[in-house]
Amino acid sequence: MRGLGTIFNVITVLIGGSLGLLIGSRFNKDLNKAVIGVNGFVSMVIGIQMAFTSKNILIVLISLALGVIIGEIIDIEGRLQRFSQHMEDKFGRGEEGKFAKGFLTTSILFCVGPLTILGSLQDGLTGDIKLLATKSILDGFSSIVFASAFGVGVMFTIITIIVVQGSLTLLAGTLSGILTQAVIAELTGVGGIMVISIGLGLLEIKKYKTANMLPALLIAPIIVMLLTYFKFI
Fold it and tell me: pTM for the full model?
């Protein structure tokens, strides 16, 4: 059954998020901060590993630069913040802005990695959900930690998962010819920088508008395909 991987991912995030909400009250502020800090360090390591997947860092640089310009112009972060605030007003009473932070942080962490892209394509093309099942379990455990710190906003990440992974799965036949190894390498590199950005925010070193980098995930494949067409790579 096509799409089963995304359904499984949604279930693991809901279960993990629910557990996080149940045990979160037992975590004191210092413990929450320590656990989030650990996730920040791990995110940095994962992001660096992903970034080094790139075969041409100039493609990553240009993609991110153009992506941020587009993201700032159309204010992706602001729109997501307003959406998160609207959801917080309805479902996150008393969370004091944690809803938006949890939603945005986990949406990017759960949806920009290579497992999202490759797993969704594999699911759509062959019905094989091994990669998405692995990702789902990782997301489920992460959801426990993030929900304990940020609250119910983490569980609403399932909206992002459904939209991103569901779309990739449905479009798998079309995208399989486009997402070559070269494209995936640069997509992973761009995603890595975004994960590093999230890590810096979790560690409270520097808060960047990571969501405004999202257009870079569309620009990178275009650059790679153009360079391939003109035989520059």
Answer: 0.81
Tens-place pLDDT, residues 171-228: 987 887 888 889 989 998 999 999 899 889 889 898 889 999 999 999 999 999 999 9
Give the Cα-Cα-Cα angle 209, 212, 218 (nearest 5 degrees).
145
CA triplet 189, 161, 74: central angle to 5 degrees?
65
* Nearest alpha carbon to residue 109 among 79, 138, 66: 138
Residue range(s) defining the domain that contains residue 50:
4-229
Residue whose tokens read 């970034």: 51
DSSP state of 214: T
Number of structural domains (the chain) is 1
Separation between Cα atoms, residue 175 and residue 117, nearest integer Å: 10
Q: Which of 128, 158, 112, 161 is closest to 4 using CA atoms? A: 128
